[in-house]
Amino acid sequence: MDNLRKELKAEVISQDVLIDGLVDQFVLALTSKSRKYQSTIITGYTGVGKSYVLELIVEKFFRSKDRVLKIDMTAYKDAASARNALFGAMNGYVSAAENKGIFCEFLDGAGRNGGVIILNELEEAPGEVQSLMMEMLDTGEVRGGDGRVRRLNRHFFAGTSNKVAERILTP
Hints:
44% of the residues lie in helices and 18% in strands. The protein is built from 7 helices and 6 strands, in the order H-H-E-H-E-H-H-E-H-E-E-E-H. A 4-stranded parallel sheet has the order 1-6-3-2, sandwiched between helices. Strands 4-5 form a two-stranded antiparallel ribbon. Helix 2 (16-31) packs across helix 3 (50-62).
């Protein structure tokens, strides 16, 4: 892991504390036998490298960019459409067979053996969607619209926030 830290610090300037913390959490999430998954919230101004560092960690750790799911939470303004897009249409709906949802597709495909899920600007999602995300992190599983339960073992979740940083850093 020391080599991973050195490589990241060579590519991302002035983010040593973020890199050290994320690498420690990432390794814990993906290698611990007792801990099934890990989550964190990263705050900072736009453009400081919050998501970029996570993407680099995934690329270097897995030697692939496919094991990261990046979701822009500002795209979801109402809870019903967000639920369908993220978790899939419920059985009985016309589009249920084609729409597994972003999370379920990732967990069934590239992320089935672990990965990173980045929820960009988490605070911008409607309250019900935020509650769904917190429930998912609390239970360690996702129930898709198809009714199947997918476990979140070996996954690292990172919510990013620009607004929290602005509130903390603005006098």
